[in-house]
């Protein structure tokens, strides 16, 4: 797994501080499926932007709605 993808997953994991249990497993599964079906170059740009803004905690509903 490339470093940028690992960092992106870690950023998503830490985005929701309050419920990382069942919720994160569900979001994580969706993320992996999305990583497999999307173009790597556009993902890299998208995640670079996401990671750049990930210092602000994201609410669960917002995190779940991110595709």
Query: Gyration radius, to the nearest Å?
Result: 11 Å
**Between the first and last Cα atoms, what is the distance in angstroms?**
20 Å
Major sheet summary line: none
Mean pLDDT across the residues is: 59
How many independent structural domains? 1
Number of beta-strand segments: 0
Give unreliable regions as ranges: none
The secondary structure category is mainly alpha
Count every helix, treating DSSP H or I runs of 4 or more residues as helices.
4
Instruction: List the secondary-structure elements in sequence, H or E.
Output: HHHH
The helicity comes to over 70%
Query: What proportion of the residues form beta strands (DSSP E)?
Result: under 5%
Shape: globular
Please describe what this structure looks like.
The protein is mostly helical and 67 residues long. Helices cover 72% and strands 0% of the residues. The chain contains 4 helices and no strands. The protein is globular and about 20 Å long.
Structure described in brief:
The chain is mainly α and 67 residues long. It has helices at 3-15, 22-37, 40-52, 60-65. It contains 4 helices and no strands.
List the helices and strands and how they pair.
Layout: H1 3-15, H2 22-37, H3 40-52, H4 60-65
Helix pairs in contact: 1-3
Features:
mainly alpha; about 70 residues
